[in-house]
């Protein structure tokens, strides 16, 4: 890493600052406001210079040191001013001595713009009136400057006593650095701390710090590949590097990071440590400067700006922000590698000292024994380790065997083995990648019936997985810049393998019972599904469609893994079509016969259908928390069973009229207990489409709902049902039919912050509408969710009855929820007439915003289109909404001029380009 000039003298003119403070004291008026104003100006100008220099030289660590120097000079000048002018004493006693030290991150001599200023005021033995006055003056002035100041005032004895029992205090004093006052007093504390506290307590401190690190990771997020990482406290962040330095400083009794070379790190590894630290400091400082506060989460809205500040540019397949975030995650991975190397050295140094320390590093007492079936590996403290330092160089296949033996014997990994493996990655070449035994061993690890995710993850963390399969290496640490995906691409793939193993083990059956039921049927094809799950997103980040490119990659990799031509082609087909089932289930009308027939034609066989279902479930569940829900599972089950009927020859070929007649008869039979006159009336209300698409159970519920509303003479009525397993809530609306009805309902739901995921629109023979909408569930308890849905239903009734003004409500919500400027989604409108026999299908894709669905459905009504069903899908910030429509005569829209006008009107809604164009498009479509 190139050295960058510190330029401390450009941060603040210390001599001039002290001279100005002294001059202010000569003023007979109260100088405090002027002192405060001067210091505020000094802080602001210093931060401005630091930000400018960061933009010029890019040095993150240097920026943090400059800011620390700035604060040092301000505190020194302020304390000098307080002691000389505000509370001066002519002949100070021995007790009237004080030392001010920086502790925590500030003690290391590094500060981010929004960091806390942690100070330790050290006294000889007890507080005096003078020392309290000085301390209070300094603290209150710093607080008035708007700084976050953490502080403690203690005697030397108190510092030592408290640090014995409190690891946080012990860590703070470990980092303590003298700033101002009696330096001999401060040096005495540091010396006694080293002799009385640090000496012979290294393992105890290391154990406490690593346990603390694990707890911090659980709080900030276990994965280092979260797409909005915490730069300070997250896994692979700055605090992990600081933890290593704290332990190294404490255990090896060193003062500088360079002193760990030879004890823990090689020169190259220490340089990697410094590069990672410098990059993370640069990102953190930019974040603080950009937000004007101590923001530690690298959120989506910051990533693009910081990518630009750091000079990243767009390359084919990857945007500038995605390239920046890939670099970030690679650095986080380097931090993980350094942690393993550090722990390995630490354990070797102290393995014989305490069993507690060994347990900390995942072992117990120091026991070594042979590992059955090999002389190259041993069991060391219940972990697999190398038997000699030439294990990998003499036979590179051992790089894969390490993981194979660990899986076979259920062993964790010794850090020494990982350290040697990481340093031996250069041995992975074309010969090893094409070696049949190496590929067979890798396939065994991937398809293990134990814990394949764990061992693949370890393989990925060491860098071996990306070296052995170079196409996988291209997506390591690759981020997809959207709100839908929670993890990097490689992390997503590994989590999908974990989900597949969970399904195979019969765990989590309640989440998606069908996939668990089908898995045993695929025993002879389990290798295919594991390979497909690992590789399905392997071509992300390329200019072409990743599904098509991924299939091509699979056709190259699978033969190396030993798969036959037929199996290779099945895996390639699964990868090429891995989004087909999800998109069909979520964006198409599954009650439309042609949807099922087209999907069955694409799938071709029941075996492929089973494999594709399980791949789809793994893919959705591996995206991140909260993405999978029971409603998506229900859609997939419906699509599976309907397609299975077609593929097995069981799909009904009876005419539509015959099936409608049978359905109406079934409804009459279900209402047999009703009075004959009422039964006849209510069974004639539904049209054919309703009878063929709604289950008999729901038809009966709806009939009872309409009957109850009629008895109460209600023109408007709503009925709610919390669907626990599907994780959605159903609201049924009965109202006079109206072209803009769905638009009004959608607007009311938007105003109530209820997201519609599906909608079925029906009319009755007496001119009423019976609309069934499904909204995302918000509460776990059915009672709470039902009350919430009833409130949404009441708002819908109020809007439909004219007692609430919808545009005003939506505008308020839109104002409270600012539209995202972080993401851009290209708007697209497709009008298709080949997807359904009876309807034109309009696909709308664009950037989500409050009230969008209401605006779209309102425009469709203005275009004189009847909506038969709507399927609303949200992928983070992107919406894909599908509408099955006809013209007012019940026919498809086939006129090209009208289709063009529909596209223009809907694009105008998505892009919000003005009312005039929309009105012109609507007029053209209706002409």
TrEMBL record:
<keyword id="KW-0548">Nucleotidyltransferase</keyword>
<dbReference type="InterPro" id="IPR010043">
    <property type="entry name" value="UTase/UR"/>
</dbReference>
<keyword id="KW-0460">Magnesium</keyword>
<dbReference type="InterPro" id="IPR043519">
    <property type="entry name" value="NT_sf"/>
</dbReference>
<keyword id="KW-0808">Transferase</keyword>
<feature type="domain" description="ACT">
    <location>
        <begin position="841"/>
        <end position="917"/>
    </location>
</feature>
<dbReference type="GO" id="GO:0008081">
    <property type="term" value="F:phosphoric diester hydrolase activity"/>
</dbReference>
<dbReference type="InterPro" id="IPR006674">
    <property type="entry name" value="HD_domain"/>
</dbReference>
<dbReference type="InterPro" id="IPR002934">
    <property type="entry name" value="Polymerase_NTP_transf_dom"/>
</dbReference>
<keyword id="KW-0378">Hydrolase</keyword>
<dbReference type="GO" id="GO:0006808">
    <property type="term" value="P:regulation of nitrogen utilization"/>
</dbReference>
<dbReference type="GO" id="GO:0008773">
    <property type="term" value="F:[protein-PII] uridylyltransferase activity"/>
</dbReference>
<dbReference type="InterPro" id="IPR002912">
    <property type="entry name" value="ACT_dom"/>
</dbReference>
<feature type="domain" description="ACT">
    <location>
        <begin position="730"/>
        <end position="812"/>
    </location>
</feature>
<feature type="domain" description="HD">
    <location>
        <begin position="489"/>
        <end position="612"/>
    </location>
</feature>
<feature type="region of interest" description="Uridylyltransferase">
    <location>
        <begin position="1"/>
        <end position="372"/>
    </location>
</feature>
<dbReference type="Pfam" id="PF01909">
    <property type="entry name" value="NTP_transf_2"/>
</dbReference>
<dbReference type="Pfam" id="PF08335">
    <property type="entry name" value="GlnD_UR_UTase"/>
</dbReference>
<comment type="function">
    <text>Modifies, by uridylylation and deuridylylation, the PII regulatory proteins (GlnB and homologs), in response to the nitrogen status of the cell that GlnD senses through the glutamine level. Under low glutamine levels, catalyzes the conversion of the PII proteins and UTP to PII-UMP and PPi, while under higher glutamine levels, GlnD hydrolyzes PII-UMP to PII and UMP (deuridylylation). Thus, controls uridylylation state and activity of the PII proteins, and plays an important role in the regulation of nitrogen metabolism.</text>
</comment>
<dbReference type="InterPro" id="IPR003607">
    <property type="entry name" value="HD/PDEase_dom"/>
</dbReference>
<dbReference type="InterPro" id="IPR013546">
    <property type="entry name" value="PII_UdlTrfase/GS_AdlTrfase"/>
</dbReference>
<keyword id="KW-0511">Multifunctional enzyme</keyword>
<dbReference type="Pfam" id="PF01966">
    <property type="entry name" value="HD"/>
</dbReference>
<dbReference type="InterPro" id="IPR045865">
    <property type="entry name" value="ACT-like_dom_sf"/>
</dbReference>
<protein>
    <recommendedName>
        <fullName>Bifunctional uridylyltransferase/uridylyl-removing enzyme</fullName>
        <ecNumber>2.7.7.59</ecNumber>
        <ecNumber>3.1.4.-</ecNumber>
    </recommendedName>
</protein>
<comment type="similarity">
    <text>Belongs to the GlnD family.</text>
</comment>
<keyword id="KW-0677">Repeat</keyword>
<dbReference type="Pfam" id="PF01842">
    <property type="entry name" value="ACT"/>
</dbReference>
């Amino acid at each position: 890493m190139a050295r960058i000039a510190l330029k401390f003298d450009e941060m603040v003119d210390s001599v001039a600052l002290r001279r100005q403070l002294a001059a202010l004291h000569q003023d007979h008026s109260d100088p405090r406001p002027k002192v405060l104003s001067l210091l505020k100006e000094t802080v602001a100008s210093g931060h401005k210079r630091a930000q400018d220099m960061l933009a010029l030289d890019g040095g993150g660590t240097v920026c943090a040191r400059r800011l620390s120097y700035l604060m040092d000079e301000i505190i020194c000048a302020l304390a000098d001013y307080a002691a000389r002018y505000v509370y001066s004493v002519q002949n100070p006693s021995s007790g009237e001595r004080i030392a001010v030290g920086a502790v925590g991150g500030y003690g290391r001599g590094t500060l981010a713009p929004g960091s806390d200023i942690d100070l330790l005021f050290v006294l000889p033995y007890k507080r005096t009136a003078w020392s309290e006055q000085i301390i209070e003056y300094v603290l209150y002035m710093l607080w008035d400057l708007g700084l976050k100041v953490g502080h403690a005032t203690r005697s030397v004895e108190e510092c030592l006593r408290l640090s014995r029992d409190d690891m946080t205090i012990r860590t703070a004093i470990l980092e303590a650095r003298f700033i101002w006052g009696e330096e001999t007093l401060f040096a005495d504390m540091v010396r006694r701390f080293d002799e009385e506290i640090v000496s012979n307590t290294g393992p105890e401190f290391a154990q406490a710090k690593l346990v603390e690190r694990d707890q911090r990771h659980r709080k900030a997020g276990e994965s280092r590949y979260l797409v909005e990482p915490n730069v300070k406290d997250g896994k692979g962040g700055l605090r992990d590097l600081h933890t290593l330095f704290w332990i190294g400083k404490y255990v090896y009794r060193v003062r500088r990071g360079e002193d760990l070379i030879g004890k823990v790190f090689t020169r190259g590894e220490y340089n990697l440590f410094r590069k990672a630290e410098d990059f993370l400091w640069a990102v953190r400082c930019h974040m603080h400067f950009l937000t004007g506060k101590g923001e530690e989460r690298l959120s989506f809205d910051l990533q693009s700006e910081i990518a630009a500040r750091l000079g990243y540019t767009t390359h084919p397949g990857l945007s500038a922000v995605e390239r920046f975030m890939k670099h970030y995650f690679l650095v986080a991975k380097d931090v993980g590698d350094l942690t393993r190397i550090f722990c390995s050295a630490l354990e070797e140094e102290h393995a014989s000292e305490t069993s507690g320390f060994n347990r900390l590093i995942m072992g117990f007492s120091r026991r070594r024994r042979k590992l059955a079936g090999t002389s190259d590996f041993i069991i060391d403290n219940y972990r697999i380790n190398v038997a000699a330092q030439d294990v990998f160089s003499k036979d590179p296949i051992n790089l894969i065997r390490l993981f194979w033996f660990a899986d076979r014997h259920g062993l964790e990994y010794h850090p020494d083995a990982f350290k040697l493996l990481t340093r031996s990655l250069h041995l992975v070449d074309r010969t090893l990648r094409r070696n049949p035994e190496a590929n067979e061993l890798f396939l065994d690890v991937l398809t293990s019936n134990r814990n394949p995710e764990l061992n693949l993850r370890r393989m990925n963390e060491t860098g071996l997985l990306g070296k052995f399969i170079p196409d996988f290496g291209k997506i390591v640490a690759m981020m997809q810049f959207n709100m839908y995906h929670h993890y990097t691409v490689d992390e997503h793939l590994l989590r999908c393998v974990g989900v597949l193993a969970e399904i195979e083990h019969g765990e989590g059956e309640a989440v998606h019972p069908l996939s668990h039921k089908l898995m045993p049927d695929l025993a002879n094809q389990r290798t295919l599904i594991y390979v497909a799950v690992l590789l399905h997103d392997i071509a992300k980040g390329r200019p072409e469609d990743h599904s098509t490119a991924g299939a091509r990659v699979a056709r190259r990799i699978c033969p190396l893994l030993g798969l036959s031509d037929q199996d290779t082609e099945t895996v390639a087909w699964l990868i090429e079509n891995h989004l087909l089932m999800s998109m069909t289930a979520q964006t198409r009308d599954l009650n439309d016969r042609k949807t099922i027939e087209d999907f069955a034609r694409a799938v071709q066989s029941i075996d492929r259908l089973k494999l594709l279902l399980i791949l789809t479930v793994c893919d959705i569940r591996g995206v991140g928390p909260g993405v999978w829900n029971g409603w998506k599972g229900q859609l997939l089950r419906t699509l599976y069973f309907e397609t299975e009927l077609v593929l097995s020859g069981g799909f009904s070929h009876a005419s539509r009229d015959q099936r409608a007649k049978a359905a109406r008869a079934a409804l009459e039979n279900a209402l047999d207990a009703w009075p004959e006159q009422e039964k006849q009336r209510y069974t004639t209300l539904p049209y054919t489409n309703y009878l063929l698409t709604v289950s008999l159970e729901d038809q009966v519920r709806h009939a009872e709902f309409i009957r109850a509303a009629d008895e109460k003479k209600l023109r408007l009525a709503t009925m709610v049902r919390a669907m626990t397993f599907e994780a959605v809530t159903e609201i049924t609306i009965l109202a006079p039919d109206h072209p803009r009805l769905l638009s009004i309902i959608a607007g009311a739901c938007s105003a109530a912050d209820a997201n519609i995921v599906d909608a079925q629109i029906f009319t009755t023979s007496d001119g009423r509408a019976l609309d069934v909408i499904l909204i995302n569930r918000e509460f776990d308890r059915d009672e709470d969710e039902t009350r919430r849905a009833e409130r949404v239903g009441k708002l819908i009734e109020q809007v439909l009855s004219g007692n609430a003004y919808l545009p005003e409500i939506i505008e308020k919500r839109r104002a409270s929820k600012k539209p995202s400027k972080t993401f851009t989604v290209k708007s697209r409108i497709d009008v298709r007439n080949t997807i359904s026999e009876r309807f034109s299908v309009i696909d709308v894709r664009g950037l989500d915003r409050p009230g969008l669905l209401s605006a779209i459905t309102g425009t469709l009504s203005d275009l004189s289109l009847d909506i038969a069903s709507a399927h609303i899908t949200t992928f983070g910030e992107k919406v894909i909404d599908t509408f099955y429509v006809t013209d007012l005569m019940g026919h498809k829209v086939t006129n090209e001029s009208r289709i063009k006008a529909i596209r223009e009107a809907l694009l105008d809604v998505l892009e919000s380009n003005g009312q005039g164009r929309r009105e012109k498009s609507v007029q053209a479509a209706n002409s």
